[in-house]
Design goal:
Length: 97
């Protein structure tokens, strides 16, 4: 997996099959400064276009609707580019919503 972008809350990398992988860590609440969508959109637009978007969220400490807002924007960006959104790596509570 090659790393494309990294911050203290979000790491974006590419798998060998060109899938885009987002690793989420730290606190994802409305009180926290959250990453912007721009870095994710840039990675979604790189060639070759990723066939799917996956997540790892085991590093998330706290979350609220701030995480949901970010993920809905990511999902919309992926769907708009016809990229599969694999939510199986997200917290169970997020997967149910």
């Amino acid at each position: 997996m090659s790393r494309r972008f990294s911050s203290n809350r979000l790491t974006i990398s590419r798998a060998d099959d060109h899938s885009l992988h987002l690793r989420l860590a730290g606190s994802w609440t409305l009180r926290d400064p959250l990453p912007t969508l721009a870095d994710v959109e840039d990675a979604l637009d790189e060639e070759p276009r990723p066939p799917r978007l996956t997540f790892a969220s085991d590093g998330i400490e706290h979350w609220d609707s701030g995480l949901l807002t970010f993920l809905l924007a990511v999902r919309d960006a992926a769907f708009g580019r016809e990229i599969d959104f694999d939510a199986s790596g997200l917290p169970e509570g997020v997967q149910r919503l």
